[in-house]
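Worked problem 6 (solution included).
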Amino acid sequence: MMFKRQLLFSILLVICCLPSVSEGQAGGPVLPPDVRLVIDVSGSMKLNDPNYLRQPAVELLVQLLPEGSKAGIWTFGRWVNMLVKHQKVDDAWRERAGSKSGQINSLGMFTNIGEALEKAVYGIDPANNKYRSSIILLTDGMVDISKDREVNRREWRRIVDEVLPRLEDAGVVVHTIALSDNADIDLLNKLSLSTDGISAVAYSADDLMRIFLKAFDASAPMEQVPLTEEGFLIDASVEEFTALIFRKNKKELTQIVGPDQKVMTAKSSSKYVKWHRAAKYDLITVKQPLQGRWQVLSEMDPDSRITVVSNLNLRVSALPNNILKGQQESVSLVLQEDGATIAREDFLSLMDISAELIGGKDEFDLRELWSQTLETTYPPTNGVFDFELPRFNKEGIYQLTITVDGKSFIREFSHQFTTRQPFSADLKEGVSGGQVSYTLTARVFDTDVVVNDTKIVATIISPSGRKKIRPLRASGLDTWTTTIRPQSEGEYIAKIKIRGKNEDGGDFEQNIDPIRFNYSIGQGFIEEDEPFFEEEEPEPEPTEEPAPTPEPVEDEEEESDVEEKDVSETPEDAKDEAGSEEPQEEMPGWLLYSVLGLSNVLLFGLGFMLFRKILRGGNNEEILDQFSEANVEQEVEQAAEAEEELEEEPPMEDIDPVADDIDPEPEPVREVTETFDELGDDDLDPEGEMEMPMDDDLMAEVEEVVEEPEPEPEPEPEPISSAETEVIEMPMEEPEVEAPVEEEDSMDALDDLDQMAVDAEEASEAPVEEEEEEEEDMVSAMLKAQGLDLAEDELDDAISSLIDELENDDSFEDLGEEPPEE
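Solution. The predicted structure is:
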């Protein structure tokens, strides 16, 4: 004990001569907390809090409040009642508040949030407030003061337009806790974000206790020391520590072991130890603790912590609870002794100061994102350490932890951020007009936005890529909504564009991150959340490659190589390699391709001659003569002779790749083939045969020969274009003898064929183009308004035009779909 006093006296002598930092930095004055609990006791709490979990949560905060702070408890339903008088916290107040917490019930008739806030904020003088004032609001419902919906709507606006500005002017931070999704989340978010408070939803008893504790930490931050499995370190400057131990096993008996190896439990009796055992946690306060390492013999939850009362403190500059996406924060910290900042170089150079930032979509999946060790070899002359945090580029939860290890003492600071976009949007399923529909709702989180001057438009992209522009209608409760009725399954994308004014009069234009969701008839919408962490791609598994063929070596080495190869290769690889060792006589590739090419040329030539005869109205007998046995035998003999000549030719690399005896005539045939390909699959009949385009003379000839059948009493089929007319086989008249076709006639026939194919293609597309032109003339304005098939620049112009129209006229006609119900 004598050594402890001497150490404290030495530290005090050193600190007395140290300068202090200017006010406004991390070493500025610290105001004691003033915490006001406002608890909902409406009848709906019977459903959302049937086990009255509000009671132990309030009791925990009552026990944690430090000496010298102020606090009060209000309950509200239809009426507002002061359950525990607002005054300074001491043992008598804690005892009284602990007993009163058991009177929290669920007997209220309405949910009068506005009046509860007004009464809880009484007595605060913004100009002369010596406390750090906070309100912790716990509710599960909507604004409900009457059975008249319009009365409740006006009360909602009164809270936002009148009560909230008074809270802001008084410097009161409002932390809101919702006990269900049925609560008015939009109102609670507005109250919290406008005053930089915490807003959260508790779905279970564990959630409620954890969120209450987080709200308390933001309202009454206290000095902490790290708690690990090895315990925690208490230095000579600590006058008192409080251990909050959440037990994983609720029935387990928590034990604390001091540096002298003395074991303490809830049944221990000591004037220096105060032990409060609850259903899920132990709260142990030890005054004048021994210096050294303490241990906790219990299986603890991560929310357990050790807070200390000491004259040696770590002070960190005020940080916001809510920040916008893309924002960056700077941090300043100092070490203080009895309120004076330590600036001695020989003292600060001994410190190890580290900062760590973890983050995630929620508090249950936080991973390290960034860490930094501050330079203390040459500390700043004023004792203030400054550093910048990385930019917060994703929505989610972030937690900053700063640790100062002074070898003989350790201090820790922890702070949590919630990162949001200035605007957000979500989807909810509903029923409109007897059909399933989905409501797209946009919300504003930026408190500098003028809600009445804000216009929002969404571009909905369907699975087929069609675009529809939907203006979002203002709800009167500072949200904007529109209705989506999907028609087909697949992925939908909603791109939202916002235009408005800030409180300073400046204009802004902003886009929300696209919302992607899949629609399935059986499952409805499945929203695709953007992952917070970039998933690392798994490294591909190494594939076993067959060992290379070994080079000839000595017998022993060759045998060893063969054995090693057999281990690494698969049976199939071994089989393939074994088979490849036996050379097989095969036809050379160039010879095979040459024969196939020559055969194709001959076939195309014959096909072209036949087709030309058909177009010219040629003689059937001449056509049949070309396929007579004599001609066929002659063609076969010519092909065989060509094959023999090719076999006698030298290797391909020694000659011109084009054979000298190949007839150059196939080139026009290739042009005909390409013309056929250009017609596309749409020009094929149902059986897959090519429908040939005909000229007018041939069509007239066909109509004269074919007898029209008697029409049946069935609806007439839709007219088809000439390109879709079926070619009908018929007996041909005795043709006249035609003169031989010269080469110029052959080329003219090819030109005619090309022109006829192009004409057929244009004829097949002409009705569609005329129909589209006619439709565009009729509904061009609607297409532009809905954004169908527009380019990106045209789509942006259409959205901007629509927003301008909405700014000039608040009433608008719904485009393409029914308007959402009020």
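Discussion: The radius of gyration is 43 Å.
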